[in-house]
Amino acid sequence: MSNTPADFVICARWVVPVVPSGRVLPNHSIVVRQGRIEAILPTDALSESQLSLPRTDLPRHLVTAGFVNTHGHAAMTLLRGYADDLELMDWLTNHIWPVEGQWVDDSYVYDGTSLAIAEMLSGGTTCAADSYFFPNAVARAMCDQSFRGQICMPVIQFPNRWAESEHQHVEKALQFHDSVRDEPGITTAFAPHAPYTVSDEGFEAVVSHANEFGIPVHLHLNETASEVATALKDTGQSPLARIQALGLLTTHLQAVHMTALSEAELQLIAAHNVHIAHCPESNMKLASGICPVQALLDHGVNVALGTDGAASNNDLDMLGEARSAALLSKVSTLDATSISAADALSMATINGARLLGLEDNIGSLEPGKSADITAVDFGDINFAPLYNPLSQLIYVASGQNISHTWIAGECLYQDGDYTRLDIDDLSRRVSGWQEKIQGDV
Amino acid sequence: MSNTPADFVICARWVVPVVPSGRVLPNHSIVVRQGRIEAILPTDALSESQLSLPRTDLPRHLVTAGFVNTHGHAAMTLLRGYADDLELMDWLTNHIWPVEGQWVDDSYVYDGTSLAIAEMLSGGTTCAADSYFFPNAVARAMCDQSFRGQICMPVIQFPNRWAESEHQHVEKALQFHDSVRDEPGITTAFAPHAPYTVSDEGFEAVVSHANEFGIPVHLHLNETASEVATALKDTGQSPLARIQALGLLTTHLQAVHMTALSEAELQLIAAHNVHIAHCPESNMKLASGICPVQALLDHGVNVALGTDGAASNNDLDMLGEARSAALLSKVSTLDATSISAADALSMATINGARLLGLEDNIGSLEPGKSADITAVDFGDINFAPLYNPLSQLIYVASGQNISHTWIAGECLYQDGDYTRLDIDDLSRRVSGWQEKIQGDV
Fold this sequence. Notes:
- The first copy, chain A, is of the alpha/beta class.
- Chain A is built from 16 helices and 16 strands.
- An eight-stranded mixed beta sheet of chain A has the order 3-2-1-4-13-14-15-16.
């Protein structure tokens, strides 16, 4: 987001501003100046000066806010399909962690994150929260591609190739935080991995520094019922009770997964305005459980969406995730009215912006907000007939129908081509990693 | 399937023959002669005469058996997105049935079925079981596009634009059955709609004629728990007990949905070798419930996949359906090893062929079988890295990655273009229906 891009107008068949929910504006245009949305108005009401701007005509397209992916591990895209159809702990301890232990370094994380950004841009995602080792490499990859992100600084007890102790994680996180404070597209969060991998001292250090910097805490929490049961059995305390006692249960907490929740815990979450990053496809694929999204929404909790890593999904497609969230909520509540198409879109956009504390800047198409925009091409016969553009967006479209993605007014992806990313070079680097890792299989 | 297509060879990066399950053949070729698979062999072992055949080189592609969609209502594609996020009975009685009552006729069914075939071909589906009114129009659409199908002849108590009484449905079905008996790509089945919409007399007529012709019975069964509870309350008999008493519980029964099953019912289904058409996305979207697929498989039951109609899905993408089947089974059993990628592919292909009684001809790539084949292009960066082609096929690919679809050796779809279908003309006809129907909204 270095240079301010040129001003322009997008003239679309439909504009879906996200806020207010459910609104579809036919034949509307978005005027973008200095990387921000100046106005949204009927195309036939464009002024002469607006008409003189360069224009992008999208006559078959729905244009909406760029998607906000609130939980992922971008570098793990290098392990897409490396191990599937395995139980969570088997998958982690016997497959994922060993290969990570051998290969993860700065260049692995840079290349893997770049690959994830390529996929996210091609799928309309303009902002992602990312949790991985070597956050400097994550930041470099995001900045190089003008991608917007919350970079989560990991804290975990286990030694790894980035840091040897929990304490060293915190120290390196502080250095990292300092190094990116002037990057306009980057925010940070502390990411203590999970209650079962972080000590009380680790959490206390996180709370102290997070409060000092005014940054959020991003935490895998209640991912499975067995994780909760084990904690209760071993310590007599639930993970939620423990993190509450440690001072983490605030509106600055981004709680990821949350498939196992009692009614009392639901009320606790709601009372403290905790934000939820719901990852339906990862939760399904790893058989983690089902987050009670409708109950959380009924309690007034903000629920956003995340793809989780491509190693457990196996894509980073936020439209697919929104569809899965709607379908899973309907079948798990046995209520087909749960999570409408408009609700699912909100979860993929404005709710994500709220979780990240960025709702004043992104998450919807409103004058004054950053021009983080995506366009979906409805021209294929598979979109016909078309009664309800929102239904088509959530229930028919996938990331593969995205035609354009802009971040802060810069077009980064258009009809299969990237404006910044050297996709051939990236491809070669990814093949190189595959060969190295596959050598180990 | 009128003229025998020319002989040719497909040289693929990977051939996945489906049988045996899980096998991936790198750098293999498929020799097709007179519409049938003659041989599958390493590309570097092709003989001189095989090398002299016209060849289709697919250097980035996975080639596998065409998908078999075992439950759908193709003409309902004209109602894609017409009504969403509604409870099943509200959706049917207040939205779908009224518009069907007004518009469904021969040309509606022909155009809607043609639209569905266009989508299915573009998504790698080569055979579909279809249940709708005006089966003659369904047959015409399928024959015109050389599509393979089991056309289900509806029997229902409610009067509709095709038939006025249950008895008239049966009479018209008999006429229809007679009219298509010489069509090579077409088979038939009786489709009594559901236990709650068909009388004992209707079922008895169906059983009698199905036995006479040696054709299957295709039936919506136990779609929801409330349907079962209502039957028990109103009649003292479960739907399954009733259809058993009426003589339908045989291996010629194709039971669709089956979300509500007791352990005793599971055993009954298994004992009678009933086939199941599982429609995970429709069941999720309509909040019908979750078919216990893993338990059925554990009991040795054949479980195949169906998309159901596009009005409740909202696409006809069998790869997406296979992924949803795997993910839903994992999360509902809390077992991530349930339904592997290879299992999901079998459900989308050979299990479907078995359900339709066509396993000697289609459902896998084996010498002697019909050349019903599809190719998936893995060239996109979103498929990288690629450790496991089967994982990429089920967990990453969707219908939008299909590059080629052949039926009986005829290439019907290639890289966005149809060889038989006039897509512009179809588009115009679909727009015409949309305008008429939308006028009523």
